[in-house]
Amino acid sequence: MTQARLGQQVVVLGAGMVGIACALSLRQRGLDVTVIDPLGPGAATSHGNAGVLSRSSLMPFNHPRLWSQLPGLLRGRSPGFRYDPLWMLSQWRWGLSFLTHAREQDFHETTIALDALIRHSGEVHRRWMDAAGVAHRRRDEGWLFLYRSEAGFQSGAFGRETLARFGVATTALASHELHDLEPHLQPIFHKALWVKDASSVDSPGELVRAYARWLVELGGQLQTTEATRLQRENDGWSVGTANGRTLRADHVVIALGPWSRDFLRQQFGLKLPMGFERGYHRHFTPIPGATLNRPVYDTAAGYVLAPMAQGLRLTTGVELNAQHAPPRPAQLDAAERAAREALTLGERTTEPDWLGSRPTLPNSRPMVGECPSQPGVWLALGHQHIGFSTGPGTGELLAQLMLGEAPVLDPAPFKPQRFL
């Protein structure tokens, strides 16, 4: 493993939550850090999520009960899951590997690893929000899983048992108890699960940008451009950019989210087994008498409604498709119809509908560590739909590995050698 020294130059590719978190962790340890991203901080995948920071995110999509759910999911009618059959056929190796990792042993290893990463990230998030002056954006009221029927509630038993095993604080609510917490929801929900070990923020993109401003205050640099070439140079690397400049780096961190797969193939010929959990969001103007105090997840309809600075944000479930495939708004439209049954929504805001891709590796764990066969190139990628909850822990772990510090997390579950 190639270790960094104080004062060395590090270039971080990607200014989402994970990239900015890596840059902050490295800068706080005395390295000279430059972040480059063609869109700027928090403008892509990190912009579009539901803003939830929750220990319940330790549950991967490929869990052991997925096998029994598979026939229904493959029909393509599930409101929380859609897919493009042609893309799935072209990515059959990734799909088969993803299903293979839905076994009990893999699930056990993944939940342990993700829980540790999420818990550490939550602690770092709190420190960083205070230091960056944006603690006011955080709400600590948890979030709610909503169930429209007793059968729906019972179908979530495995998830509740898993959360209980990890000590995640939850409370099951009857319909009248749910009304006490969220009085403006329509009385269509039979039960709810209040996940108390959770926070949320009112603008994920603004939080990333606040962290980026703090990075600059600490002496880090941001450049709005695209990395086009990585080339080994003496004991380090040269990074060619779209604006014609070349940056010299002792170490390079690749935190490009869903763009990581193509970048690694183009630069090093590496084949990264990455799928794309695409997701959409749409905003609605709040109206009096129709507000929420915390994000809510309608388990039957597969959407999340979250109060945001931009209004009420409606986010969809998963669409497995090519990263750059054209938008397919049917899932978002169906989510809106279902959400209007649950809450009186105002008009859509003028902000356009959003589409982003969440990068998923076959065992639902990110890669954090040095790239095999490429000394000085470090990977922080593959965080599926929970990069917002796991970014700061990823940054801390990567910095500890790079500088030879004793890691606070077990790095083994996140080693890039699993798939590279």
Count of individual beta strands: 22
Could you give the distance between the termini?
A: 15 Å
- CATH architecture title: 2-Layer Sandwich
DSSP strand content: 15-25%
CATH topology assignment = D-Amino Acid Oxidase, Chain A, domain 2
Give the low-confidence spans: none
Number of domains: 1
Question: For the CA atoms, what is the radius of gyration?
Answer: 21 Å
CATH class, anyone? Alpha Beta
Q: What would you give as the CATH superfamily?
A: D-Amino Acid Oxidase, subunit A, domain 2
The biggest beta sheet is recorded as:
10 strands, mixed
Q: What is the number of helical segments per DSSP (H or I, 4+ residues)?
A: 12
Query: Which structural class fits the helix and strand makeup?
Result: alpha/beta
Which word captures the global form? globular
Helix content: 25-40%
Mean pLDDT: 96
Describe, in short, the structure shown.
The protein is α/β, with parallel strands linked by helices.
Report on this model:
The protein is α/β, with parallel strands linked by helices and 420 residues long. It has a single domain, classed as D-Amino Acid Oxidase, Chain A, domain 2 (2-Layer Sandwich), CATH 3.30.9. The chain is 33% helix and 25% strand. It contains twelve helices and 22 strands. The protein has helices at residues 17-27, 66-74, 85-90, 92-100, 104-132, 150-155, 157-165, 175-181, 204-217, 260-268, 330-342, 387-403; strands spanning 9-13, 32-36, 52-54, 81-83, 138-139, 143-147, 170-174, 191-195, 198-201, 221-223, 227-233, 236-241, 246-249, 251-254, 275-284, 296-298, 303-308, 311-315, 318-320, 354-360, 367-370, 377-381. Strands 4, 6, 7, 8, 15, 16, 17, 18, 19 and 20 form a ten-stranded mixed β-sheet that branches. A hairpin with a 4-residue loop joins β16 (296-298) and β17 (303-308). α1 (17-27) packs parallel to α9 (204-217), α5 (104-132) packs across α9 and α5 packs across α12 (387-403). The protein is globular, with a radius of gyration of 21 Å.
